[in-house]
Design goal:
Chain lengths: 113, 116
Amino acid sequence: DTAVSQTPKYLVTQMGNDKSIKCEQNLGHDTMYWYKQDSKKFLKIMFSYNNKELIINETVPNRFSPKSPDKAHLNLHINSLELGDSAVYFCASRYRGGNTEAFFGQGTRLTVV
Amino acid sequence: AQKITQTQPGMFVQEKEAVTLDCTYDTSDPSYGLFWYKQPSSGEMIFLIYQGSYDQQNATEGRYSLNFQKARKSANLVISASQLGDSAMYFCAMRESGFGNEKLTFGTGTRLTIIP
Protein backbone atom coordinates (compact mmCIF):
# COMPACT_ATOMS: atom_id res chain seq x y z
CA ASP A 1 0.00 0.00 0.00
CA THR A 2 1.34 3.43 -0.94
CA ALA A 3 2.12 5.47 2.16
CA VAL A 4 2.01 8.97 0.63
CA SER A 5 0.24 9.18 -2.69
CA GLN A 6 -0.08 12.17 -4.98
CA THR A 7 -2.27 12.61 -7.99
CA PRO A 8 -1.68 13.26 -10.76
CA LYS A 9 1.89 12.14 -11.39
CA TYR A 10 2.16 14.32 -14.49
CA LEU A 11 0.29 17.52 -15.27
CA VAL A 12 0.67 19.54 -18.46
CA THR A 13 -1.39 22.70 -18.69
CA GLN A 14 -1.50 26.09 -20.34
CA MET A 15 -0.54 29.38 -18.78
CA GLY A 16 -3.37 31.03 -16.97
CA ASN A 17 -5.16 27.82 -16.05
CA ASP A 18 -6.04 26.72 -12.52
CA LYS A 19 -5.02 23.24 -11.37
CA SER A 20 -4.98 21.11 -8.25
CA ILE A 21 -2.67 18.41 -6.95
CA LYS A 22 -4.00 15.99 -4.36
CA CYS A 23 -2.08 14.25 -1.60
CA GLU A 24 -3.15 11.56 0.80
CA GLN A 25 -1.18 9.69 3.45
CA ASN A 26 -2.23 6.51 5.23
CA LEU A 27 0.53 6.55 7.85
CA GLY A 28 -1.45 8.24 10.58
CA HIS A 29 0.93 11.20 10.53
CA ASP A 30 -0.18 14.55 11.91
CA THR A 31 2.01 16.83 9.80
CA MET A 32 2.03 17.23 6.04
CA TYR A 33 4.14 19.32 3.68
CA TRP A 34 4.42 20.58 0.15
CA TYR A 35 7.91 20.95 -1.32
CA LYS A 36 8.88 22.29 -4.74
CA GLN A 37 11.82 20.89 -6.69
CA ASP A 38 13.03 23.19 -9.43
CA SER A 39 14.79 22.37 -12.67
CA LYS A 40 18.17 22.39 -10.88
CA LYS A 41 16.82 19.75 -8.45
CA PHE A 42 16.74 22.17 -5.53
CA LEU A 43 14.05 21.29 -3.00
CA LYS A 44 12.33 24.00 -1.03
CA ILE A 45 9.52 23.96 1.50
CA MET A 46 6.30 25.66 0.49
CA PHE A 47 3.76 24.83 3.18
CA SER A 48 3.31 22.71 6.24
CA TYR A 49 0.15 21.72 8.07
CA ASN A 50 -0.12 20.16 11.50
CA ASN A 51 -3.50 18.66 12.37
CA LYS A 52 -5.12 20.73 9.62
CA GLU A 53 -3.53 23.95 10.91
CA LEU A 54 -1.16 25.90 8.66
CA ILE A 55 2.19 26.24 10.43
CA ILE A 56 4.58 27.11 7.62
CA ASN A 57 3.94 29.36 4.63
CA GLU A 58 7.28 30.02 3.09
CA THR A 59 6.75 33.21 1.05
CA VAL A 60 4.86 31.41 -1.65
CA PRO A 61 2.80 33.55 -4.08
CA ASN A 62 -0.83 33.64 -3.01
CA ARG A 63 -1.78 31.97 -6.29
CA PHE A 64 -0.83 28.81 -4.39
CA SER A 65 -3.42 27.76 -1.85
CA PRO A 66 -3.09 24.62 0.22
CA LYS A 67 -6.12 22.97 1.73
CA SER A 68 -6.18 20.31 4.41
CA PRO A 69 -9.68 18.86 4.81
CA ASP A 70 -8.37 16.38 7.39
CA LYS A 71 -5.11 15.09 8.82
CA ALA A 72 -4.64 12.58 6.04
CA HIS A 73 -5.05 14.96 3.10
CA LEU A 74 -3.24 18.06 1.91
CA ASN A 75 -4.16 19.41 -1.50
CA LEU A 76 -2.47 22.17 -3.45
CA HIS A 77 -4.46 24.46 -5.68
CA ILE A 78 -2.66 26.78 -8.07
CA ASN A 79 -4.42 29.69 -9.78
CA SER A 80 -3.35 31.50 -12.94
CA LEU A 81 -0.46 29.19 -13.68
CA GLU A 82 2.77 30.76 -14.94
CA LEU A 83 5.69 29.27 -16.85
CA GLY A 84 7.87 29.56 -13.74
CA ASP A 85 5.55 27.24 -11.84
CA SER A 86 6.88 24.33 -13.88
CA ALA A 87 8.56 22.03 -11.36
CA VAL A 88 8.14 18.80 -9.47
CA TYR A 89 5.91 19.17 -6.43
CA PHE A 90 6.35 16.74 -3.58
CA CYS A 91 3.96 16.05 -0.79
CA ALA A 92 5.45 14.64 2.44
CA SER A 93 4.25 13.65 5.86
CA ARG A 94 5.66 12.82 9.25
CA TYR A 95 4.67 12.33 12.84
CA ARG A 96 5.56 15.56 14.62
CA GLY A 97 6.51 14.00 17.95
CA GLY A 98 10.17 13.07 18.15
CA ASN A 99 12.89 12.99 15.58
CA THR A 100 11.16 11.31 12.72
CA GLU A 101 11.87 11.32 9.05
CA ALA A 102 9.47 12.69 6.47
CA PHE A 103 7.96 10.26 3.97
CA PHE A 104 7.61 11.64 0.48
CA GLY A 105 5.08 11.03 -2.23
CA GLN A 106 6.28 10.15 -5.72
CA GLY A 107 6.06 13.76 -6.90
CA THR A 108 3.91 15.57 -9.45
CA ARG A 109 5.70 16.92 -12.48
CA LEU A 110 3.90 20.10 -13.49
CA THR A 111 4.66 21.55 -16.90
CA VAL A 112 3.15 24.90 -17.84
CA VAL A 113 3.18 25.67 -21.56
CA ALA B 1 23.89 32.05 4.55
CA GLN B 2 23.46 28.54 3.23
CA LYS B 3 22.17 26.29 5.93
CA ILE B 4 23.17 23.08 4.16
CA THR B 5 26.16 22.92 1.83
CA GLN B 6 26.98 20.03 -0.45
CA THR B 7 30.14 20.90 -2.32
CA GLN B 8 30.24 17.94 -4.70
CA PRO B 9 27.82 18.45 -7.57
CA GLY B 10 28.83 15.12 -9.10
CA MET B 11 30.91 12.09 -8.24
CA PHE B 12 32.00 9.02 -10.16
CA VAL B 13 32.93 5.93 -8.16
CA GLN B 14 33.95 2.43 -9.18
CA GLU B 15 31.54 -0.32 -8.18
CA LYS B 16 32.34 -1.99 -4.85
CA GLU B 17 34.35 0.99 -3.60
CA ALA B 18 33.29 3.06 -0.61
CA VAL B 19 32.13 6.61 -1.25
CA THR B 20 31.80 9.65 1.01
CA LEU B 21 29.34 12.39 0.20
CA ASP B 22 30.07 15.65 1.97
CA CYS B 23 27.60 17.79 3.85
CA THR B 24 28.19 20.76 6.12
CA TYR B 25 25.48 22.66 7.92
CA ASP B 26 24.97 25.90 9.75
CA THR B 27 22.67 26.40 12.71
CA SER B 28 22.66 28.04 16.10
CA ASP B 29 19.91 25.74 17.32
CA PRO B 30 21.32 23.21 19.81
CA SER B 31 18.65 20.67 18.87
CA TYR B 32 18.47 19.62 15.24
CA GLY B 33 18.30 16.57 13.04
CA LEU B 34 20.28 15.71 9.97
CA PHE B 35 18.90 13.52 7.20
CA TRP B 36 20.07 11.98 3.96
CA TYR B 37 17.70 11.22 1.11
CA LYS B 38 18.31 9.41 -2.16
CA GLN B 39 16.53 10.39 -5.36
CA PRO B 40 17.00 7.84 -8.17
CA SER B 41 16.24 8.73 -11.77
CA SER B 42 12.66 7.55 -11.24
CA GLY B 43 12.20 10.64 -9.08
CA GLU B 44 11.00 9.44 -5.69
CA MET B 45 12.65 10.62 -2.48
CA ILE B 46 13.92 7.76 -0.34
CA PHE B 47 14.95 8.30 3.28
CA LEU B 48 18.34 6.76 4.06
CA ILE B 49 19.59 7.77 7.47
CA TYR B 50 19.07 10.16 10.37
CA GLN B 51 21.42 11.72 12.96
CA GLY B 52 20.24 13.72 15.94
CA SER B 53 22.36 16.54 17.29
CA TYR B 54 22.49 14.93 20.72
CA ASP B 55 23.24 11.44 19.48
CA GLN B 56 26.58 10.27 20.82
CA GLN B 57 27.18 7.66 18.19
CA ASN B 58 27.26 7.93 14.44
CA ALA B 59 24.15 6.56 12.80
CA THR B 60 24.34 3.43 10.66
CA GLU B 61 21.76 1.75 8.43
CA GLY B 62 23.06 -1.24 6.52
CA ARG B 63 25.64 0.00 4.00
CA TYR B 64 24.98 3.63 4.97
CA SER B 65 26.71 5.38 7.82
CA LEU B 66 26.80 9.00 8.81
CA ASN B 67 30.12 10.51 9.82
CA PHE B 68 28.89 13.15 12.25
CA GLN B 69 31.44 15.72 13.39
CA LYS B 70 29.50 18.17 15.47
CA ALA B 71 32.30 20.65 16.16
CA ARG B 72 33.01 20.90 12.44
CA LYS B 73 29.28 20.95 11.62
CA SER B 74 29.63 18.19 9.12
CA ALA B 75 27.44 15.15 8.46
CA ASN B 76 28.99 13.16 5.66
CA LEU B 77 27.26 10.10 4.23
CA VAL B 78 29.42 7.04 3.74
CA ILE B 79 28.23 4.26 1.45
CA SER B 80 30.24 1.09 1.74
CA ALA B 81 30.70 -1.38 -1.10
CA SER B 82 28.86 0.72 -3.67
CA GLN B 83 26.47 -0.92 -6.11
CA LEU B 84 25.16 0.13 -9.51
CA GLY B 85 21.79 0.80 -7.90
CA ASP B 86 23.39 3.49 -5.74
CA SER B 87 23.59 5.77 -8.78
CA ALA B 88 21.25 8.64 -7.87
CA MET B 89 21.03 12.17 -6.49
CA TYR B 90 21.76 12.38 -2.79
CA PHE B 91 20.43 15.17 -0.63
CA CYS B 92 21.53 16.19 2.83
CA ALA B 93 18.86 17.97 4.86
CA MET B 94 18.44 19.51 8.30
CA ARG B 95 15.47 20.09 10.51
CA GLU B 96 15.78 22.53 13.40
CA SER B 97 13.62 22.48 16.50
CA GLY B 98 10.82 24.78 17.48
CA PHE B 99 7.33 25.35 16.22
CA GLY B 100 7.47 26.76 12.71
CA ASN B 101 10.93 25.29 12.08
CA GLU B 102 9.53 21.88 11.35
CA LYS B 103 10.65 21.70 7.78
CA LEU B 104 13.55 20.09 6.02
CA THR B 105 16.12 22.48 4.59
CA PHE B 106 17.93 20.73 1.77
CA GLY B 107 21.35 21.04 0.23
CA THR B 108 21.79 21.27 -3.52
CA GLY B 109 22.51 17.57 -3.83
CA THR B 110 25.28 15.37 -5.18
CA ARG B 111 24.78 13.25 -8.26
CA LEU B 112 26.53 9.94 -7.67
CA THR B 113 27.35 7.68 -10.59
CA ILE B 114 28.64 4.17 -9.96
CA ILE B 115 30.86 2.84 -12.73
CA PRO B 116 30.84 -0.93 -13.37
